């Protein structure tokens, strides 16, 4: 869901285990996540020929929960690139 509301329990998550799902991905791609000011947050490698879904635990590269706000993500696969955004609300 966009925006992602941490307290919503949308996927019946256990407390402290929050996930965002990226859907309709190519079989191999890299998802890079940035703040709106362009600061790199983390990247997620997707390599699954059978599922176009990838889950992200909304943590930065250091394992810390990201702050609420607007984020930009870039999905890159070969020469193709998709840029979009999502919001995190606490």
Short description:
The protein is mainly β and 90 residues long. The protein contains no helices and 7 strands.
Report on this model:
Helices cover 0% and strands 48% of the residues. The protein has 90 residues and is mostly beta strands. 8% of the residues are buried.
State the helical fraction.
Answer: under 10%
Count every helix, treating DSSP H or I runs of 4 or more residues as helices.
0
Structural class: mainly beta
H-E order: EEEEEEE
Strand content: over 45%
Multimeric state of these chains? single chain
Q: Would you identify the regions where 5 or more consecutive residues have pLDDT less than 50? A: none
First and last CA, distance: 14 Å
Largest sheet: 5 strands, mixed
Strand order within the widest beta sheet:
1-7-6-3-4
Overall mean pLDDT stands at 85
Radius of gyration: 13 Å
DSSP, total strands: 7
Outline: globular
List strands and helices in order, with pairings.
Elements: E1 4-5, E2 20-22, E3 28-35, E4 40-47, E5 54-56, E6 69-77, E7 80-89
Parallel strand pairs: 1-7
Antiparallel strand pairs: 2-5, 3-4, 3-6, 6-7
Features:
single chain; 90 residues; mainly beta; five-stranded mixed β-sheet; two-stranded antiparallel ribbon; 7 strands; globular
């Amino acid at each position: 869901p966009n925006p992602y509301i941490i307290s919503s329990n949308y996927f019946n998550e256990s407390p402290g285990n929050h996930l965002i799902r990226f859907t309709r991905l190519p079989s191999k791609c890299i998802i890079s996540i940035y703040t709106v000011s362009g600061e790199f947050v983390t990247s997620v490698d997707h390599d699954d020929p059978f599922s176009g879904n990838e889950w992200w635990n909304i943590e930065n590269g250091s394992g810390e929960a990201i702050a609420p706000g607007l984020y930009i993500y870039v999905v890159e696969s070969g020469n193709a690139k998709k840029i979009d955004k999502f919001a995190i609300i606490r």
